[in-house]
Every structure is written in C-alpha cells, then in structure tokens.
Amino acid sequence: MTATGTGADTGGEEALGDPVAGCELCEAARITPWYHEDGICWVADCEVCDVPMVVWRHHGADAPADAVDHMLDRLGAVADERFGVGGWSFDRVMRQVPGHFHAHARDPNWWFRRFAPRQATRLAADAGAGHGPTPTMGG
Ligand SMILES: [Zn+2]
Ligand SMILES: [Zn+2]
Question: Which of 61, 69, 83, 120 has the highest Cβ tally under 10 A?
C-alpha cells in the first residue's frame, strides 16, 4: 500500500500512540515464535533473552493499570506453560527499549541457558575425574 491518504476519514478515537520508526517493539518483527496477540499486546520469545516477553501495542512506557494487568496475565499464562507454575518471575525492567512498555518472564536459569559458554561445563568436566563418562545435559 502506497496510499498517502488525506486523512479525511479518520473517525476513530483509538489512537493511543503511533508506531515510532526505529523502535524494534513497534516493528513487532516476527523473528521468534509468537504465543499470543490481541488488541492490547503480543507475547513472543525475546530475541535476546530467549524467554517469553509481552509487548504493549502502543509506544509508550506508561501503560494504564488495566492494560498492565492484562499484559502480565497473558505473559503469565505463557510462562506457566513454559516453565511451570512458580518456576519464573516477572521482570518489568525495560533495559533495552525504555520508552516502550514490555515485560519479561524469566526462569532462574535463563541467563545460564542463554549466555553461559559451553566451554565452562567442558573445562569443569576435564578438571574432574579424568576418565569419567561424558556428562549428558538433560533437556
Ligand atoms: Zn515502540
Ligand atoms: Zn529480553
């Protein structure tokens, strides 16, 4: 669509916040699995952290309380399924995109699972019993 409209027929009052060019959350690129989407938010794996993340549809940091409730509820449902009830916690610190509301659901091992170098386990195995069986990482 290349229509540069005249804006004559914008009768709605639903403009809460326009998408901001260059904001990766407004872009909502589907580069990871999506679990949920509705008019308020979407839930997908965070590309960086590999944990579920909910993102507000509107660009802005101050989401209304009822929208926040809704988003955390949706994120919680996904996280419960992924990590089990009680196996994760909300992280509402918006480190990467401070101007656009989003929240992560992190399990205690997310950092290790995502960022720990495989070398570490290998070196530890070498330093241990010389001829022990190769440790198998369970799924
Ligand atoms: Zn945005
Ligand atoms: Zn993340």
Answer: 83
Check which CATH number belongs to the domain holding 51 and give it: 3.30.428.10
For residue 94, give its domain range: 34-120
Q: The tokens 């403009």 sit on which residue?
A: 15
- Note whether residue 19 is domain-resident: no
Q: For residue 11, what pLDDT is reported? A: 39
Residue 80 DSSP class: H
pTM: 0.73
How many structural domains does the chain have? Answer: 1
> Binning pLDDT at 50, 70 and 90, where does residue 65 land?
very high
Closest ligand to Cα 58: 1
Q: How far does residue 127's CA lie from ligand 1's centre (Å)?
A: 48
Ligand whose nearest atom lies closest to the CA of 17 = 1
* Domain assignment of residue 20, yes or no: no
Q: How confident is the model at residue 127 (pLDDT cuts 50, 70, 90)?
A: low
- Is 73 inside a domain boundary? yes
Q: How far apart are CA 47 and CA 59, in angstroms?
A: 19
Task: Tell me the CA–centroid distance for residue 76 and ligand 1, in Å.
Answer: 22
